[in-house]
Structures are given as C-alpha cells and as structure tokens.
Amino acid sequence: MLKYFKSIKVIVPILSVLVYSCATNHKKVESYYSIPTVSYLRQGPAYDSQVVTEIYNADKVKVLDKNDAGWWQVQSARDQKIGWTQSDLLSDIPLATKNYYIAADGLPLRDSPNEDIVSRKLLGYGDEVQKIDEKNGWWRVLVEKDKSIGWIPAQMASATRLEPPGKSAQAVQGAPETRGPSKPAYLFVAAENLKLYLIPSIPSQVVKVLKLNDKVEKISQSGSSWVKTRYLQTGVEGWALARYFRDAPVTERNQIVSDRKKSLKKASRPSKRIPSPDSESLEPEGM
Fold first, then answer.
1. Could you tell me which residues come within 8 angstroms of residue 191 by beta carbon, excluding any fewer than 6 positions away?
2. What's the rounded Cα separation, in Å, for the pair 76 and 100?
3. What tens digit of pLDDT does each residue of 77-118 get?
4. Which of 72, 94, 271, 281 is most open to solvent, judged by the fewest CB atoms within 10 Å of its CB?
5. CA 275 from chain center: how many Å?
6. Would you say the pTM of this structure is higher than 0.70?
7. Which domains does the chain have, with CATH numbers?
C-alpha cells in the first residue's frame, strides 16, 4: 500500500506538468498570413455568416481559436477586427506583396470605379499601392501609407518606381543633367468637344470627351498627327489628333478647331471674343 502511494506522488506532478503544457500550447497565439488577393473574416465559422472585415494578400493575422471543420478564428493586424476564415487561406510563412507606384500627382482615390464619383482623398506621385481588385480598366487598391482603400484608373499605376516630373535618373544620382529642347508640358483643347482614344486610331475605344480649353498634360507623340495626353482632373490618358490642341487657352472664336467642312462654312463669320479661362463666366476646370 505504501508503495502504491509513493507511485501516486510521482505520477501526480508529471500529470500536472502535462496538463499545464497542453493548456499553454492551446492558448499560444499563432501568426499567419492571408494568401488570396481578397478574403473575408466572418462572425461565425460558416460561409453564410455575416462579413466582419476584409483581409488582403500578405495581411498578418493572429489565430485565436480553431474548430474541427477547418475554420480558424483570427484577429486582423491591419484593423484589429476578429472573425472566422478557412485555414487553407492562410500561410505560416510571411508573404511578399506586389506593390505599384502612382504615376501622377493629385490622383483622386474614389469609392467606385467611375471618374464622376467624388474623390475622398488625393494620392501623390510615387505613393505605393497594392492591387486588390480590378474592373473595367480600374484597380481597387490599398494605399500603403495609411491603409486607405479606393479605386484608381489602372493606367495610373506603374510597376516600377518613377522619378518625379522634371527630374531625370542622372539628376537623382548627382550627375549633370542634360536637357533637350524646351517643350510645353501642358496643352489646351482647341475644340468644342474632343474625343480621347485608347490608341492612336479613330475607330478605337473612346476613353474621355474633353471640352474647350480643358488643360491636359502631354505624355508622348506618335508621328506628327497624334499626341497622348493625361487629363489632370481624373488621370485618364488617351490619344487625340495634335491639331486639336494649343499651347495656350483659346480666347477667340476663330481659334477653335472644328471639322474641315464646318470650318469652310464658318470662315466668313466675324470672330468673337471668348472669355478668359480665369473668368467667372466659365466653370472651373474639370466640372
């Protein structure tokens, strides 16, 4: 009998250590990383449960609980919200994100993929963003500096970091900068309505219709007939015939470029003064 109690005294501490060890391991917080571009944390471990928040590729989460069906309860490190997700959507190895860089200064970040939607904030030249969705030529992006989310035109995101306008790679590295002939950085629309095309071809898709005296940034030129421009208010880029642009705003009627047939009919009419673009009679640019 004495031998029996001695055995108990030896076994009980061992069992206590095992129980404590199991309890400690169960409460251990594990860090994982989201694999899909976009996935969802839900209130309960089921696909029909309400969505609590979104998590994105490479987002870090802490695992709080697990069930036998493969659902894990996690806490998002990005916004601290807690919800359930499938374990096979998570990786225990940190993931590298593919970041892009904003190619224009003052680019609107919109709630929907539509240039008519009012912008909540403006992005700066070179801001880093992560692509999380795309639709009809627009990207939904996560802005690295403040984790805000919104839509931008896809063509306004560059896969490589660009130097700000007016700076060359030589200037950044400290080498003397050589400059070519001076060219105007901006152009003004000299037509009542001017279509911007996706490519330098009239049958191609129209991406924007510009109005008289709209200011655009010149990006490049194809031959002497076509120029590629960027509309400053929305960042939309497209091609148009060079003859429809001027280096300064149009101030007189006879400066307006129209179809050649219509121009012949209007040639005999006296020119009329057009209000300056700064006049209160004109709407602000981009309206």
1. 210, 212, 244, 256, 257, 258
2. 23
3. 988 999 999 999 999 888 877 789 998 888 889 888 887 777
4. 281
5. 37
6. no
7. 26-91 (2.30.30.40), 99-158 (2.30.30.40), 186-258 (2.30.30.40)
